[in-house]
Structure formats: structure tokens, C-alpha cells
Amino acid sequence: MWFKMSLKNLILLLLVWANMSAAQTWQNLNPFEQPPGNAILGLDCVDDECGWAVGEYGFILHTSDGGSTWGQQHPGAADLRLASVDFLDRQNGWVCGDSGLVLHTTDGGETWHRESTGASQNLCGVCFVSARSGWAVGHAAVTLHTTNGGDTWEEQPCPVDRCALLDACFVDSSRGWIVRSSWAVGGGGIILRTTDGGMTWNEQEGHTYLQFAVEAHGRGSHFET
Q1: Residue 124's Cα: distance from chain center in Å?
Q2: Burial of residue 103, with CB atoms counted within 10 A of its CB: 0-12 exposed, 13-18 middle, 19 or more buried
Q3: How many C-beta atoms lie closer than 10 Å to residue 182's C-beta?
Q4: Taking all residues of the chain, what is their mean pLDDT, rounded to a whole number?
Q5: Of 221, 219, 220, which is closest to residue 89 (Cα–Cα)?
Q6: Which of the pair, 69 or 86, is modelled with greater confidence?
Q7: What ranges do the domains of the chain cover?
Q8: Which of 97, 163, 198, 200 is the most interior residue, by most CB within 10 Å?
């Protein structure tokens, strides 16, 4: 998922997962004072305790207690915006960002390895369905796919003009969706769907704003904006 909001206000994103009431109440959490003007751009949680948030100036926040406390991780990309994060479990995750950046960790974010994507475009969304198979999408309609955990990436064809691809969500190695920006529908998005791992894409009709019903990594999700 792709988010942007002031870090000063954080934290409708940084929610309390555990012990939420039937009314689905929310609690603002501010892990520590962030520099004014920074933004949270991506958030991913693997269970009710463990999650990561990423944003501008290369920062990564991590919680292991359901958001009660957050610590900062240091991926070595302080000059770049980090736009999206996706973890398979508590150890294995990927982050994407500006200038074709993809970072990979196998130890829960203690260390991060920069992968060579061959892309220069800003990347906005990353999604993995296994330790080997994943996608990253971004500006100029770039769509990247890896089958070896990110050691190498190949660009896939995308049947749209050079607009921004904002996010990607796959449920397995064949079926997935990407979201294309479209100012023509008032800032909403257009959804493209693939059933062959990204080799071909078809626009889904009737969705002038983002609206998916997908199940990612065994976790049911429903997005509406």
C-alpha cells in the first residue's frame, strides 16, 4: 500500500493492533519526534505485533510490540525517499524507493542489502509472494519482476503510457494487480490485472477510484479510496 502523511501527525497509520475493541477504536502513537516535513509513505505488518514503516530521507521504523514502541533502522539510504515496504515474515522483507532503489533484509531489518534493479525511475510499490518471486513498479510505467529474491530484475511490458504506477499487489506468482495514476478521473486510479505473472495486463472496468478485493500472503485485504 502507498501512503503519504505528515510525520508530525503520524499516526493514524501507526495503529494499535492488539486488543482493539469491537468498535475498532484507534490510538495515536508517536514513537519519537520526527523532523518537521518528513512523511510516512509505506507501512506493512506481518502479524499483530510486528511491522515496519518507511518514508522520506531513507528512514525505516520498526515495532515488535504492536506499535507501543518504535525503533529506527538504518538502511544506508539517507539521501533517498523510501516509498513502499513488503515483508513475508518477521525476517524477510523488501523496500523500494527513488532512483530504482530496492533494499532487501533477511534479518528483520538489522541489515539491508541494496539490490541492482537496473532501473533509474522512482519506484512506488513492491510486492513479494515468496522468497524468490516479486514485483516493483513506479514512474514512467516501469514494471520490474524478479524470480530469485531480487538478485536480478527484468522489466516487464506494461500497456499504458509513461504515467506513474503507484502500487502492486499479487496473490501468487500468476495473479496480481497494479494501480495506474489517472488525473483524468479526478486524481483516482485505474487498475490493471494480470493472470500470467505480468506478461500481459488488462484494465478492469468500472473502477475510477482504487478498489480491490484481494488476499495477499494469506491475509485478506479490501482497499477502497
Answers
A1: 7
A2: buried
A3: 17
A4: 78
A5: 219
A6: 86
A7: 5-224
A8: 97
pLDDT digits (tens, 9 = 90+) for 97-149: 999 999 999 999 999 999 999 999 999 999 999 999 999 999 998 999 999 99
Instruction: Please state the CATH superfamily assignment of the domain spanning residues 5-224 in this structure.
Output: TolB, C-terminal domain (2.120.10.30)
End-to-end CA distance of the chain: 12
Of 78 and 107, more confident: 107
Pairwise CA distance, residues 210 & 187, whole Å: 10
Q: pLDDT grade, residue 27 (50/70/90)?
A: low
What was the pLDDT predicted at 39? 81
- Is residue 113 a contact partner of residue 77, using CB atoms and an 8 Å limit? no
Output the CA angle 120-137-36, nearest 5 degrees: 75
- CB count in 10 Å sphere of residue 28: 11
Average pLDDT over residues 23-45: 67
Q: Output the 3-class SS for the chain.
A: CCCCEECCCCCCCCCCCCCCCCCCCCCCCCCCCCCCCCEEEEEEECCCCCEEEEEHHHCEEEECCCCCCCEEECCCCCCCCEEEEEECCCCCEEEEEHHHCEEEECCCCCCCEEECCCCCCCEEEEEECCCCCEEEEEHHHCEEEECCCCCCCEECCCCCCCCCEEEEEECCCCCEEEEEEEHHHCCEEEEEEECCCCCCCEECCCCCCCEEEEEECCEEEEEEC
